[in-house]
């Protein structure tokens, strides 16, 4: 099965440079246009299924794709971005992410989800793909930059963390 892994479109929070996570943020007009252009790019791929995070920004992106591509849509909470606890809705301009990426009691008290949890969610998501019908050969997966990096690492342990662009299509074979 082929996965077309995509990050959601541009959002209001991104425009305001706010930390997201599980916080809801709507797509901007540009984000909606990006989703429509993405659907055009995927039109010749014969998409059988779209699986999306259930957060607003991915949900809106997925609904646009589903409507334009005529593909069924499933929402899966496993695809959510990292929960950033009390950092959410705060400015991300000068945040020291290295400090918050450490699994310790201080970050736990802030409500920051450990990266190990994201890895476990990525593993669970990939494991669940084997229960899809064999007819689901081409699947669009819509998620968030942090989760996508964990997913890509699970698919290829040579992957190195990087910022995933809006509507960037990453094609990968799933086993």
Polypeptide structure, described:
The chain has 175 residues and is α/β, with parallel strands linked by helices. The protein has one domain (2-173): Rossmann fold. The chain is built from seven helices and five strands; from the N terminus they run βααβαβαααβαβ. It has helices at 12-15, 29-42, 56-69, 97-100, 105-109, 115-128, 145-155, and strands spanning 2-7, 49-52, 73-75, 138-143, 169-173. Strand 2, helix 3 (56-69) and strand 3 (73-75) form a beta-alpha-beta unit. Helix 6 (115-128) packs across helix 7. The chain is globular and about 45 Å long. The chain starts with a strand and ends with a strand. The relative contact order is 0.25. The model has no long low-confidence stretch (mean pLDDT 93).
Give helix % range.
25-40%
> Globular, elongated, flat, extended or rod-shaped: what is the shape?
globular
> CATH topology, anyone?
Rossmann fold
CATH homologous superfamily heading:
Phosphoglycerate mutase-like
Total number of helical segments? 7
CATH architecture: 3-Layer(aba) Sandwich
Biggest sheet, spatial arrangement of strands: 3-2-4-1-5
Uncertain segments are: none
Structural class: alpha/beta
């Amino acid at each position: 099965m082929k996965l077309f892994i995509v990050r959601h479109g541009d959002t209001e929070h991104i425009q305001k440079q706010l930390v997201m996570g599980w916080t809801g943020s709507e797509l901007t007009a540009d984000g909606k246009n990006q989703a429509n252009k993405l659907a055009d790019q995927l039109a010749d791929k014969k998409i059988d299924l779209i699986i999306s995070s259930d957060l607003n920004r991915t949900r809106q992106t997925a609904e646009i794709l589903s409507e334009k591509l005529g593909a069924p849509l499933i929402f899966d909470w496993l695809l959510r971005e990292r929960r950033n606890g009390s950092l959410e809705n705060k400015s991300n301009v000068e945040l020291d992410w290295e400090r918050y990426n450490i699994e310790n009691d201080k970050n736990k008290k802030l409500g920051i989800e450990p990266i190990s949890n994201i890895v476990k969610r990525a593993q669970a998501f990939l494991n669940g793909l084997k229960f899809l019908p064999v007819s689901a050969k081409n699947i669009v997966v819509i998620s968030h930059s942090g989760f996508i990096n964990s997913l890509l690492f699970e698919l290829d342990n040579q992957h190195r963390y990087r910022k995933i662009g809006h509507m960037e299509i990453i094609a990968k074979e799933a086993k």
